[in-house]
Amino acid sequence: MKKFAVVAAMATAFLGSTAYATDLEVTHWWTSGGEAAAVAELAKAFDASGDHWIDGAIAGGGGTARPIMISRITGGDPMGATQFNHGQQALELVEAGLMLDLTDVAEENNWKEVVFPPSLLDACTVDGRIYCAPVNIHSPEWLWLSNKAYEDAGIPVPTNWNEFVETAPQLEAAGKIPLALGNQPWQSNLAFGAISIAVAGLDVWKQVNVEKNMDVAAGPEYAAVFQAVADARALAAKSTVQDWNQATNLVITDEAGGQIMGDWAQGEFQVAGEVAGEDYTCLPGLGLNAYLSTGGDAFYFPKLDDPEQEAAQKRLAALLVSPEVQVDFNLKKGSLPIRGDVDLSAANDCMKKGLELLASGNILPSGDMVWSPDVTKQNEDLMVEFWKSDMSPEDAHAQWVANLKSGL
User: Which one of 230, 234, 319, 332 is at 20 to 30 Å from 311 when CA atoms are compared?
Assistant: First the structure.
């Protein structure tokens, strides 16, 4: 606690005494209420340091924003910094020599000693050089529940996914949508991934996604997963919203019983004035497998032919990983910090659950870390079709295995 206070005070004193006045455009896809509040903390800190954050928010989520970002970088119109998820999304840009090497920044600020888990920095590393600044840990496999929706239905709030499915008919009888799900492709894929681990278990997931065992992928464990997803899509049939935060709002307004969504949903509950444990319940691993997958966000810095802007890029990279910014940003975002030496005593009940899981070491790599963007996109497309049609579980399972094999 004292150590953090001293470090934060030193950082504040240093930043407050320096005036750089360099504009830097930063692109990202954080546009919901909770996301906007979080990114404002980054902009505020950068502006306070003497530089100027030019906000380049792109609405529509990562699936819409990434192609725009990549097109600008490859087309000769790079921004100063840009968000990507941890993993392989920017690998080709790095290999093409279009991204700034941040190894000197990482070494000066001891990133290898403070970033946890180490896989986050590994995801930024290509041929021993570091090309991105991780800013948070986001785990997508949470079930968010409206306590009042269940009170209105006269039934207890579920404690796991199985109870959620069993009580769905009573929710529907009370006029509620059992499962809120938006129409963005990644949402369907996220829900599939969460149900996969809930139904098949952690060991089976690792065999398929880490060990790349395609016999297990084609086997009975994942056949059961696809049947469970087919059952779940019936629960989401009356959810007609588009964006993820619109689906979260169905839970916040008690119109829906629950939503499978990442811990970034906390930001929306916070903006709405909802209190964790009182107004809503959060179940990591859908209440069946207590774990976190260590996905999240990182910032990459395209090469610019301007020494002053390059210096500002490196200042921003260091700032993003600094203790004070890590606390202010992640408390608003609902995500976990990428360093374990910061004070998060102000965290709510849901964030504390995440911190406990992170400390326990019960963590998995995210899908972005273990599969290429091509495989991820194929499976997103498959999940959209599966969730929004009457495709049989058997056909979807077979196509999913074929998609995985194409990435080996």
Answer: 332
> Helix, strand or coil for residue 253?
coil
Burial of 346 (0-12, 13-18, 19+ CB in 10 A): exposed
The pLDDT of residue 112 is above 80? yes
The amino acid present at 15, given as its one-letter code, is L
Cβ atoms of 100 and 301 within 8 Å: the answer is yes
Q: What is the DSSP string of 151-194?
A: HHHTSPPPSSHHHHHHHHHHHHHTT-EEEE--SSHHHHHHHHHH
Pairing of strands 81-85, 297-300: antiparallel
| Tens of pLDDT, residues 169-203 | 999 999 999 999 999 888 999 999 999 988 898 89
The CATH number assigned to the domain with range 2-138+295-361 reads 3.40.190.10
Return the structure tokens found at 27.
């692109």
- Structure confidence at residue 33 as a pLDDT band (50, 70, 90): very high
Rounded Cα–Cα distance for residues 303 and 82 (Å): 11
The whole-model pTM stands at 0.84
Instruction: Give me the percent of the chain exceeding a pLDDT of 90.
Output: 79
Q: Do domains 2-138+295-361 and 142-293+371-406 have the same CATH topology?
A: yes
Helix (H) or strand (E) holding 27: strand 23-28
Distances in Å between the alpha carbon of 13 and those of 68, 119, 142? 37, 32, 39
Please report which helix (H) or strand (E) contains residue 197, including its range.
helix 185-200
Q: Residue 51 class from Cβ within 10 Å (0-12 exposed, 13-18 middle, 19+ buried)?
A: buried
Q: Which amino acid is at 204?
A: V
pLDDT at 16: 43
- Closest to 99 (Cα-Cα) out of 118, 123, 82: 82
Residues 6+ apart with CB under 8 A from 147: 157, 278, 279, 280, 281
Q: Would you give the DSSP letter of residue 285?
A: G
- Paired residues of 292 in beta bridges: 363
CA 392/CA 85 separation, integer angstroms: 31
Domain 142-293+371-406, CATH: 3.40.190.10
The length of the chain is: 408
Contacts of 112 (CB under 8 A, 6+ apart): 106, 118, 121
Q: Exposed (0-12), middle (13-18) or buried (19+): which is 107, by Cβ within 10 Å?
A: exposed
CA 192/CA 320 separation, integer angstroms:
32
In this model, does residue 19 exceed pLDDT 70? no
